[in-house]
Amino acid sequence: MDSPTKIIFNPCENKENQYITILVNGLEKHGFEVSKLDDFLSSKKHYQSIKLLHLNWFENLDDSSSSSMWKSYFRKLVVLAAIKFGKKKLVWTMHNRLSHEKKSGKLSRALTQKIVAQADAIIIHSEVSRGILRSKYPNLKSKIIHIPHPDFVDVYGAMLPESSEERTPQLKLLFLGAIKPYKNIELLIEVARRFPQSVHLTIAGNPNSEAYRSELQKLAENTPNISLELKFIPDEELPSYIHQSDLLILPYSLDSSLNSGTVILGFSYGRTVICPRIGTIDDLDGGENVFDYSYEYESEHLEALEKQIQKAITLHQNNPNSLIEKGHRMQGLVLKKNNKQDVTDSLIELYESLL
Disulfide: which of 90, 250, 251, 326 matches 184 by Cβ 3.0-4.6 Å? Predict the structure, then answer.
């Protein structure tokens, strides 16, 4: 009997993101033995046994302090050198246009350049990424493979049954996910203030710092149509949060955002989204079932967002079920285009072609 192929998938676990679990479980079911990156250089025997490394978000650095950032950078350079020295196969997934961490941007870009130069394959989750990669790295030799982001249908529990009686005239908007500055939460609070009667906004997720939590609480003070639930939302509660909303609203920055697991999550649980036309939205091409928008300058973002909210309000007031119907159509689309089994099969096929 053949021994299992030993690989590293980094990170191989993430309690806040089932994306990792879906892929790692699929790889293990197929017979791959998945190890952590931390163990890569733990012993000569283990190092020699690893055939392939798949890195996600590897270009992100710890920017909590200058010393941490440089330490993180050099540690990652050592890992890349060890991969090259051992002639290991390297796969990298491009998740973002650029690092969301502003302080470490320059170093992160330098690291990304090294990863791109060394990778045997680069996975993209949206077609627009191909052009971005080729424009930034004209001498790119790596193999670019488009594998969609897996769907989340039933991953966080079953979808709750719909009831038309639950729909109210007030449009219920939900922001869900880790609360970080680049996600434009301040913009969301500002736009919600413009619709005091017709919109109720819930912001649910864990802020990346206590200072940021306080800042958002202060911004949303004396605004009755905004509910702040600034805490970690357990997996099992996600279907309920989504079910209680009419729409997810995700005003990401077009400067750095490219793909969104939260967009896929919303669609997977039968809700459509208000969101800039990032790569995820572009690939799915949901047409009138999605409230997507674009803007050239950040100063135009608020007006573009407000316009989509007004459009959703009008539709919702004319027919309270219209938005839910759009969400269900988007669920059908992700089941077809982002089928988690097809995604895992494509990843396995890629690994096997490299090995």
Answer: 251
